[in-house]
Amino acid sequence: MRILYSHRIQSRDGQGVHLQALVDALRTQGHEVRVVGPSGFEKAELGGESRLVALLRRWLPPAAAELAELAYSLPATLRLARAAAEFRPDAVYERYNLFYLAGALVARRRKLPFLVEVNAPLAEERQKHGNLRLRRLARWTEAFVWRRADRVLPVTEVLADHVAAAGVARERISVIPNGIHPEEFATPSPPPTEPKAELVLGFVGFVRDWHGLDAVVRAIAAWQGTPRLSLLVVGEGPARPGLEALAAELGIADRVRFTGLAPREAVPGLVAGFDIALQPAAVAYASPLKVFEYMAAGRAIVAPDQPNLREVLADGRTALLFDPARPGALWDAILRLATDSGLRARLGAAAREEVQQRDLTWDGNARRVVAMAEAECRRRAGQVAVLGQPVTG
User: Which residues belong to any copy of the Glycosyl transferase family domain (predicted)?
Assistant: First the structure.
């Protein structure tokens, strides 16, 4: 197929990883993909953000900044329309963003199948966390895009409920979670015959205060048993200075390490060094990329027991899920794994097998996207054929 991929991503963070992974998978399978988005995305570095966007958000009043976001849809639509005229795609695929209408407008004008990937209910999210001012306009633009999509592709069933509540028919909603490239993750080494003197607790991602890693640092410092425990954070984030200061204050600075931003190709090797992989907290509707990385690496996972994570993890089979409302539950799960090497091995092996059995991969996601786009093309072709039949009798 010829797929026109529309987006408004400005930074090389998890969003960019998702975008590039899916595009690479589609191209590997022989499909032609034209990616159309902000020019700055191609030049952005890992973890970087557009300077222009940052300045606008800093200096413009919130309502004016939101109107500027909506106004961006005009040049974006013109750019996407030019690409569509030149590329002549079979379908338009868009990564949804608030106040962004380009894909919906171009697909409708050219009568193309329109697939929309949804990673968050952004109107609700920004109203709660981002000082959203034009709330009615935000909700309208969100519903406008979702309702005009032939298929809406949320990353979790929890998020699918948000999409349905906006008026999208359930038969047009298909959940496609995040995935991984399993070939990037080496087969885990056999468990050691002797107990390890030190175990590494690991975390991957942009670390924020709400992840609760400060409680893990305090618990590591208080732990007097065996094995010795340390923490490795693969990533960066606003919580890092506080965590480093806390570790120094508690006298365990040598056991709390940060790699900083790591190249994507380095992540599998770093995760392979974890003994216990942590997802200490998660947004209620998200499909955390790190969970799939942990699974593919065959790591023993500790994660909160909540609906979106239960969509991919099973307590006691592929992970230990803890009650996030109970104080100390995260640490109890960590200690259970730290003192049971057999359980760590069983959970890790089952998690890795789950990736294969359910095809939780970018290649699998690409196949699902193409199947839906092809089905929509056939449906439209059938409608045209029916409309073109002569009327008799």
Answer: 194-353
pTM of the model: 0.92
Q: Are residues 221 and 347 in the same domain?
A: yes
Answer yes or no: do 300 and 350 share one domain: yes
Q: How many domains does the chain have?
A: 2
Domain-located, residue 222: yes
| H helix or E strand, kind and range, residue 55 | helix 51-59
Exposed/middle/buried for residue 143 (C-beta within 10 Å: 0-12, 13-18, 19+): middle
164 and 192 housed in the same domain = no
What is the C-alpha separation between 102 and 96, in angstroms, rounded? 10
Calpha distance 251→245 (Å, rounded) = 10
- CATH code, domain carrying 309: 3.40.50.2000
Contacts of 308 (CB under 8 A, 6+ apart): 156, 157, 158, 159, 282, 283, 284, 285, 286, 287
Q: What residue numbers bound the domain in which 242 lies?
A: 183-358
Please name which of 77, 74, 83, 78 lies closest in space to residue 103, comparing C-alpha atoms.
Answer: 77
pLDDT tens by residue, 299-340: 999 999 999 999 999 999 999 999 999 999 999 999 999 999
CB 278 within 8 A of CB 245: no
